[in-house]
Structure prediction request, 456 residues.
Amino acid sequence: MASPAIPTVTILSLLPLLILLLSSSFSSMASPASTTTTKEYPTFLHCFSGKLPPSTDLSQLVFSRNSSSYTTILHFSAQNPYLLSPSSLTTKPLYVITPRNEPQIQASLLCAKRHGLQVRVRSGGHDYEGLSYVAREPFLLLDLINYRAIYRVNVDERTAWVQAGATIGELLVPVPPSVTVFTVSRTLEEGAEKLFNVWQKVSALQLPEELTIRVILQAVVTGRRTVQATFNSLYYGTVPDLLRIMNRDFPELGLKAEDCEEMSWVESTMYFAGINITSGTPKEEALLNRSQPATNSFKNKSDFVKKPISEKGLRGIWNKLLEEERGMMILEPLGGKVDAVSESGTPFPHRKGNLYNIQYVVTWLEGADANKYIDWMRSLHKFMTPYVSQSPRGAYLNYRDLDLGMNEGPDTSYQAASVWGLKYFKGNFRRLALVKGRVDKENFFRSEQSIPPLLA
Prediction:
């Protein structure tokens, strides 16, 4: 099975804190005892500065479009350059705020509401559609890059308070003393199709939990243009043990000891992220370096597969990949610990019965025709319709895709949002909307794909 699990601490995110701050403060704003009006704070900045201690250095906290550091800070955590380009239909924030504590967050939210500004919160995680740093109406960006403390660590209970701007590299969890990785590539001429068929059958259902093997499919040129399948693996154990398992469960790949490498968990993280470090740089320091500028624009989509794709389907996939040299498919096996949790146990519902998920990726360089690549991506996704999950056709929230549907303003109904929401959450979408209706019935925290409030 392909989804190994390592014990982790419980992460208590910023969201409950924001809701509590927002709920209590909005209540006081609506109270008859509250005499503060927009006349006292004619602009957002007047309002914001008026709620902070006089000694606060706003130049290191608030960045308007006229600030010399505005563009640098806005682009620092932006993962998709296309969304900030002139050809995009999105709007950049009026202000970027980089709070360090709860009172600064509270002031940002209160003043944004008072002055009719949307708020987008950016903590640095996956954001393929840029909903944390661009919008389609005036907004301010609450960038949590400086809100990253980890405290109240209880080793016995394995819990901690983690501020939402912290990265995984700053949060320590138990890991194995060493792991084994390998990357083996085969072209169609070298039997990639046969190997992929075997992988479809064993990756989620037969391999042990400690071993995961993903596959990356893409066009390459090796004398002639062809498709290559790259088998990319992580094993919680040693090379000899891995070879024994592979010879038993996936001998067709022909894995050899020289294909494998034992390393620390930190090294494996860098291995899969493709991070190269200069000689003498501590690995931990490289992982904590958040200045990894995005160079390629991209469009992604996702799917879940419940039964092996047929030979006809695979031949069609090869043809589609041969059309676009900058496209690829990343197939991640499920099973293992993913199957051990019920469909309704967490918001993520795509569990037992799914063999693997697919991430479709296409990238392009600055100045290229974005529509050309996006159109190809959409055509590939359409081609895959008969071979993936149905009713609804599932999608992975972490690979967000606005093609699935978008909210139309703050009054988007639950029914309208279900067009995209059921694809991500299935039956859990209604439960999430009911929670939203209890904690944010005015739909203040919203985006093009935010869960709408549903009142019981």
Summary: The longest strand covers residues 211-221.
